[in-house]
Amino acid sequence: MKKNNIAFGWLPDDGSGGGTAHSIGDIESSMGQKTSAQGWYAQAQSGTLFDGSQFKWRKDQILSGGVFQPAVMPTGGWWGLKYEDNQQAVAICKVMKEYTDAGLEVWLRFAHEVNYYQQDGTYQGDVNDFKEGWDVVAKACRSIAPEVKMWYTPNVASLDEYDEFFPDDASTVDLIGVDWYPKQTSDFDFATGSGNMKAFHDKYTSGNGIKFAIGEIGLGQGASMSSRVAWLENIMGSNEQMPNMLAVSWFNYYKGYDFRIAACDGDSATKQYFAS
C-alpha cells in the first residue's frame, strides 16, 4: 500500500485498550490492498531474557508480508542492556534474527518514545541509560542480525529534545521518526507544525543514509472519520517537503476512543483515499 511514493502500514488493534482485536488480514480485507508494513509491541522486562513471545503467537500474521516494525520496550530497568552485560540485547537481536531469516525486512523501534516513557515511569533511568542501551542493542544486532534496521522514534517534542536523546554514534541509526498524536483537528501541519518533523528530517537525513519514517501516528482526541482522514492526507502529502520520508504506520486502535481508519465503520473514506 503506497501513496505519494510513501509506503503505508498499520498497528492493528490487539484488544488491550478495550477495542476488538483485529488482524492485519482484517485491515487488508477492508482496504482491498496488501499492507506495506505492520507494527506490534512487546516488553523486554528487566531480569527476564526476552523471548519474543508477544510476537510469536501472531507470527503467521507478521510473516504474511510487509516490513516488520517491532517496538521493543525495556521495562523495569536496563538489565542486560549494558556494556558490561549485554545478555538482554543479545536475546532481543536473536528474536529479530528469526524474522530476518524468514525473509522479512525488520525495522526495530527499540525503546520507542523514550523521552516520554522515562518521564511517566514506563522506562527507568535517564538519557544516558537509553543511549548506552541503544548502542548495546545496535551493536549486538550488527553482529547477530545485521539486516535489522535500528529506528530512533522519540515522542513528539522540540528539536532540542530530539537532539538530546539522539544516539551518540550516528552510524547505529538507520531510520528516524516521531510519534505524534495532535490534540486538534484543523489548522496544523505535519511537516512544519509543532511536531518539528521537517526540522528533524532535515537535520539528520542529509547525506548520511539515514531515512525518515513514522512508526505510529493518529489523532490525539476523538474525532470524526473525515478529520482522521484529513490528518492522514496531511501526513502523506509531506513527501515533497521531506524527500527522505519512506513510510508511515497508523495506530489503528480503539483505545479510549476511536483512532481507527480501517476495519471500522466509515473506513470507505480511507479506502477511497488510497484508491485515488
Question: What's the arrangement of secondary structure elements?
Answer:
Layout: E1 2-3, E2 6-12, H1 24-31, E3 37-45, H2 53-56, H3 59-62, E4 67-75, H4 87-101, E5 107-110, H5 114-120, H6 127-144, E6 149-152, H7 159-165, E7 175-176, H8 197-204, E8 211-217, H9 225-236, E9 245-252, H10 268-275
Parallel strand pairs: 2-3, 2-9, 3-4, 4-5, 5-6, 6-7, 7-8, 8-9
Antiparallel strand pairs: 1-2
Helix pairs in contact: 4-6
InterPro entries: GH (IPR017853), GH26_dom (IPR022790), Glyco_hydro_26 (IPR000805)
GO molecular function: mannan endo-1,4-beta-mannosidase activity
Family: Belongs to the glycosyl hydrolase 26 family.
Distance between the ends: 12 Å
Instruction: Tell me the β content.
Output: 15-25%
CATH structural class of the domain at 36-228: Alpha Beta
Elements, N to C (H/E): EEHEHHEHEHHEHEHEHEH
CATH architecture of the domain at 36-228: Alpha-Beta Barrel
Give the number of DSSP strands: 9
CATH topology of the domain at 36-228: TIM Barrel
Low-confidence stretches: none
Radius of gyration: 18 Å
Biggest sheet: strands, sense, closure? 8 strands, parallel, barrel
Q: Which strand order do you get reading across the main beta sheet? A: 2-3-4-5-6-7-8-9
Total helical elements: 10
